[in-house]
Amino acid sequence: MGSGSAEDARPGLVLLRGTRRPLAPDAGGEVLTWHAFQQRVTEQGRRSQLRRYRGTELRVRYLGCVHRPLETAILLRGVTRGRCVITDDDGRSLRVTTAHLLRTALRALRDRLGAGRLLRDTHSMLDAIEARLQKRGAVRFEPSRRLVYLRTDLTFGLTAGGSVGHVAGVLNAFDAFTAPPLWLTTDTLPTTRPDIETERLLPGDRHWGDVERVALAANGAYAGQIDRAVRRADAGMVYQRYALNNVAGLRVAAEHGLPLVIEFNGSEPWIARHWAGGPLRYEPIAERIEAMNLRHADLVVVVSEPMRDTAVQLGARADRVLVNPNGVDADRYRPDLDGTPVRERLGLQDKTVVGFIGTFDRWHGAPVLVEAVARLLADRPALRDTLACLMIGDGPELAQVQRRVDELQLRGVVHLTGRVAQEAGPGHLAACDVLASPHVPNADGSAFFGSPTKLFEYLAMGRPIVASRLGQLGEVLADGQTALLVEPGDPVALAQALCRLIDDAPLRARLGAAGRAQAEREHTWHRHTQRIVDRLAAVVDG
Fold this sequence. Notes:
Rossmann fold, six-stranded parallel β-sheet
């Protein structure tokens, strides 16, 4: 026997929170995502985790951009007997010691006490921006000058999802219409072209204990960085993907006399009230900033008609709002991709595969698809040996899906991949014969305002689609021509449509070919971006 004690042999813990570093095979210990760890603590209680691990490492994207740093450090220190460290993808590390806890607590107290001043300073800044905008003369759109794309989201380490596809799609396409873009971003994203000039925006080290305050404080931190980049690039236009409490694009447009395009994907105060459990703590200033961006932008780009109505209600001029559905990279998502490697790895050879990809959010309807597969097998038991359902991604409803798979005895039929990298998405969809988009209405009864990127990816893959007749899905897809449409939230109707496609290979081929043709004709990111440029030119120069 070895001389090590049983306590020394107990595993350590490696936690992953936004990191993109590959995990070394010899990392040792237990590996959990930060979300899974928080769930464990909630379910089992903090007392059960107290000093449980001999050592803990939290891996993050950037060391200075950790939300709720005090709570994070206290939790890490509380579950660890020995060495406790936070490391980031830049190779930096921070020991979580008693001294670090004290410094972090003092910083959190300073930031909390400074909240009032931050709000006052922000209102003063907004007053100054509005005054500058009132004096701003006419602006011109000059495609020969460079576009500056601003991404100020305070989410780090994204590897997949609709927002990743949208940012990369638009950014990659702009230089077909303007001088090469300059991308100013808080974090890089997969599938953006490596030749696009990129500078990282640093949001500063203040107020990370509160997501609303850190976004407000970041406005000041960004100002000098953006001004220097705009002057160096000889920018001719600013495009911003709007983020909570951010005024960076509006400020630089006012200061430098540049046309501003705001990409508006939803009202942050509305999302907080309806989807995040309650109103924002500093809702009035968030509403003011949002309204200012919409009111003063030269062009507001939204993905759907309901979102257009929202933008106008919040202050945008109706004649300066462009409804521009999401798109797809038709070279990356295409029918001739080989899905065999994914099929072989998951044991799906000789199966008819129904596929779904998404972030398993409440409107994606992933549980409805599981119910539909169960009903389909109940009606056609012989399909159990030949049918597979491949569900790609993760998110809030994944745990519910996993429970229903077990309850309905669908293990071996439903395959849950977890999140896959954006680059691997097309190969996974290529492994599918039929693709499902079972979206459900918003629970609060509001209009469905989404423009699912999966919809356009499905079309471009040349696979037959079964989708909910809901919002934009029912507008883009034609029942019996490019897809089969069913009532949202109805697993029986979904099962019947899936069964029809499984039985009818010629129908699958016809729908898939028509969908691919529509994607190439109408829904590429090139066409999406061209509509933005054309509309901006008409609004500004017309």
